[in-house]
Amino acid sequence: MRIASLTVKNWMNFKELTDVPLHTRNYVIGANAVGKSNFLDVFRFLRDVASPAGAKPAAGGLQEAINRRDGIRKLRCLHGRKDSEVLIDVTITDSKDRWRYVLGFKGEGKANNRVLIRQEQVFKNGQPLSECQRPDKNDMQDHDRLTATYLENPNANKEFRGLAHYLSSITYLHLVPQLLKHADEIGGNRLNRDPFGQGFLQRVAETNGKTQGARLLRIQKALSRIVPEFRELSFEQDPTTGAPHLRVNFKHWREKGAWQREKQFSDGTLRLIGLLWSLMEGDSLLLLEEPELSLNEEIVRKLHKLIPHILKLGKYADRQVIVTTHSESLLSDLSIGAESVIRFVSTDDGTVLKPASDEEALMLKCGFSVGQTLLPAVKPDGAEQLVLDL
Ligand SMILES: Nc1ncnc2c1ncn2[C@@H]1O[C@H](COP(=O)(O)OP(=O)(O)OP(=O)(O)O)[C@@H](O)[C@H]1O
Ligand SMILES: [Mg+2]
Q1: Under 8 Å between Cβ of 144 and 116
Q2: 341-347 and 350-353 strand pairing
C-alpha cells in the first residue's frame, strides 16, 4: 500500500492543502518553521489514531492522538476560523484497490472540550463503504460514540482492517544519537512510539537472530566503505545488566583492533546505522526527518541512491519514503524529478505548496538538480542580514 494523495484543512500551519500528490520517494523542503515536520505529523497522527485504543506500548485512538498533541486548540490551524473543523482526507492505493479515508473533527465547545467526529468515511474504488459513513444512525442516538473513530475500533473496521493496519504501521525516524549514547543517565523515560530512536537497541535485540545478523552484516558492509577503520559490527547483551548494545571493531595498531560500544560511536555512524536498519525493518510508509544531519556531504549526495538499494536488500524495494531536508547535496541527484519535491512557503494565510515555476522547470530541463533549482526560493529573506543586524 502507499499514500497517493493528501488533503488537509486547519492542520497546524496549513489552513488548506488540496490533493498533494505523493510518490514512492518524496522530499519535503521549505524554510525553518514552515511546517515540514507538521506535514509529517499528519501521517503520524493517522498512525496514532489507527492504533487500537489501549494497545501497549503505544496506546492509540483519536482522543489519545489529540491529547498527545496538547489538545485540539494547539493542533487546529491558527489561521482558520475559531470553530473550524480539522479535516484529513487521504487516498491510499494497493495493487488492486484505491482507498480513501476521510476524518473531520472539532471541539465539542463545552467546558470539557472533548473532540467529536464530524465525519468519518471510507471509500473503496470510489464507492462509499456502508460500514463507515459517519455520523450514522447509531451516532445520532448516542453522541458519545463520536469520540472514537471506527478506524481504531477492531469491532467496526472489519471491512477496512487492511487500511487500519497499514496506517498503524507507519514509521517515523529522527534518531538523536545522544539519547542512545547517554541512555544510562537519561533512564527509562521513552516517548511514545520512540520517534527519536531511544528504543532502537531494544528493537535490534528483539529481532530474530538470522534477520538481525543479516541486517547488521549489510550495515557493516556499507559502513566499512564510509569509515575506513570500520571492521566489524555486532550485537551483544551486557552479561551483568542484560542491556542491549552494539559494538564495533575498529582497525587499530593492535592486531585484534579495538572494540567500542555505541557510546563511543560518532554521531554520524549511529545515525547511519539507525537509518539503514529502519529502511530494512518493514514495508509501511517511512518518515525520515533530515537524514543529512551529522553526515559527510559526499554520503548525503549518495543517500537518494542508497535508500532504494537498502530497501531492496530488505525485500521492500517499493516502500514509500517521505524525507524532510534542508540539504542541496541530498537533492543533487539528477534522477530526482520535480514531482518528488513538496515545497512549502509561508504566507499570511498559512503555509502553502509552491510548485516549480516555468523558469525553474526550464532549469531542470537544462540539467540542473532539484537542489540547485528549487531550494533557492525557500531561502529566508532575512538570511543576508542575519549577521549585520546582530
Ligand atoms: N496550530 C497551529 N497553527 C499555526 N501554526 C502552527 C500551529 N502549530 C504549530 N505551528 C507553527 O509551526 C511551526 C513549526 O513547524 P515545523 O516544526 O513543522 O517546522 P519545520 O518546517 O519542520 O522547521 P525546521 O526546518 O526548523 O525543522 C512553529 O513556528 C509553530 O508556530
Ligand atoms: Mg522540522
Answers
A1: no
A2: antiparallel
The closest alpha carbon to 246, from 233, 256, 257, 258, belongs to: 233
Residue in 199, 188, 182 with CA at minimum distance from that of residue 264:
182
What backbone torsions phi and psi does residue 121 show, to the nearest 5 degrees? -135, 145
pLDDT at 41 over 90: yes
Residues with CB under 6 A from ligand 1: 12-13, 30, 32-38, 74-78
Torsion of CA 178, 179, 184, 185, to 10 degrees: 80
Is the pLDDT at 239 greater than 60? The verdict is yes
Higher pLDDT, 190 or 76: 76
Residue at 31: amino acid letter: A
Would you say 30 and 378 are in contact if contact means Cβ atoms under 8 Å apart?
yes
pTM check: above 0.85: yes
What is the average per-residue pLDDT within 375-381?
Answer: 88
**More confident of the two residues 243 and 89:** 89
Can you give the pLDDT at residue 388?
Answer: 67
Chain length of the chain: 390
Closest Cα to atom 29 of ligand 1: 33
- Going from the Cα of 254 to the center of ligand 2, the distance in angstroms, rounded, reads 43
- Cα-Cα-Cα-Cα dihedral sign, residues 293, 296, 301, 303: negative
- Taking the CA of residue 38 as reference, the ligand 1 atom at the shortest distance is 18
Residue 112 alpha carbon to ligand 2 centre in Å: 31
Collapsing DSSP states into helix, strand and coil, what is residue 289? strand
* Residue 218 CA, ligand 2 centroid: distance in Å: 29
32 Cα to the center of ligand 1, angstroms: 8
As beta bridge partners, residue 230 has: 250
DSSP symbol at 146? G
- Which residue matches cell numbers 530541463? 365
Residue 78, classified by CB atoms within 10 Å of its CB into exposed (0-12), middle (13-18) or buried (19+), is exposed
Alpha helices in 94-182 (DSSP H): 137-141, 161-168, 177-181
The closest residue, in CA terms, to atom 28 on ligand 1 is 33
From 11, 37, 81, mutation site for ligand 1 pocket: most ligand atoms within 8 A of C-beta: 37
pLDDT digit string, tens, across residues 130-167:
999 999 999 999 999 999 999 999 999 999 999 999 99
Q: Could you give the count of Cα atoms lying within 13 Å of 70 in the half-sphere of its Cβ?
A: 5
